[in-house]
Design brief:
The chain is mainly alpha-helical. It has helices at residues 26-38, 49-58, 66-69, and strands at residues 2-4, 11-13. Bound molecules: zinc ion (ZN).
Length: 71
């Protein structure tokens, strides 16, 4: 049985040996999964990269409260 790869539309054999099915290759599978992760199918409430970066910045002031740094 032949199936068309969802990513590149190339025909590939549907078999138990093809661990990347329905994709034709690991490359097509990873590209498709990557697109899924990068598109707007993000789980609501997931912290953004920016949130993680501000946590890092807070850790660099040696525990000095922001109010004391102003004086
Ligand atoms: Zn493919």
């Amino acid at each position: 049985m032949k199936i068309a790869c969802p990513h590149c539309k190339k025909e590939s054999e549907w078999s138990k040996d093809n661990i990347f099915r329905p994709f034709c290759s690991e490359r097509c599978k990873m590209i498709d999964l990557g697109e899924w992760a990068n598109e707007s199918k993000v789980i609501p409430g997931t912290p953004s990269i920016e949130a993680f970066e501000s946590i890092d910045e807070l850790g660099e002031n040696d525990g000095i409260p922001p109010d004391d740094r102003l004086h």
